[in-house]
Amino acid sequence: MLKNDIFERLTTLLDTNNARYRVMEHATGGRSEEVAKIRGTQLGQGAKGLICHVKGNGYRQYVLAVLPADQQADLAILAKQIGGSRASLASPKEVSELTRCVFGAIPPFSFHPELKLVADPLLFERYEELAFNAGSLERSIILHTADYRRIAMPELITFRKRSD
């Protein structure tokens, strides 16, 4: 596997863009709830990144879909919003190739030209700071939400499951 330089790329990008953030080293957490407790953050502050493969209607695209950790993604809605007819989660091999990270450690930034970045608007509506694993299960970054939006510039697409 390639050397994981994602943390260095992230901090360089954030520093270059004068982002307000802090780094936290911590024990590996399993589920999002556990990681939020370890970080001392709310579950909804977690920026959960899913690597999806959207296909159909002549469309083929890998997508890094980011949403709050207390929400679930609706992959059918995601596919339709982007222009495909179906979406599935990428395989661990594809995730590794596209992000140089393991499942659970994917930051909400795309450093791969074939990986389109989208975010659910709810990510920007509730908290002043977002928290995410920074290329490692033992390291997180807590970043001002406005700085994330300004630097990453994700396409905004509502794709979370609705409870109504």
TrEMBL record:
Species for this entry: Xenorhabdus ishibashii
Cross-referenced SUPFAM superfamilies: YbaK/ProRS associated domain (SSF55826)
Gene3D superfamilies: YbaK/aminoacyl-tRNA synthetase-associated domain
InterPro entries (UniProt xref): PROXY, YbaK/aa-tRNA-synt-asso_dom_sf, YbaK/aa-tRNA-synth-assoc-dom
Entry superkingdom: Bacteria
Location of the YbaK/aminoacyl-tRNA synthetase-associated domain: 32-151
Pfam families xrefs: tRNA_edit
Name the UniProt record assigns to this protein: Prolyl-tRNA editing protein ProX
GO MF term list: aminoacyl-tRNA deacylase activity
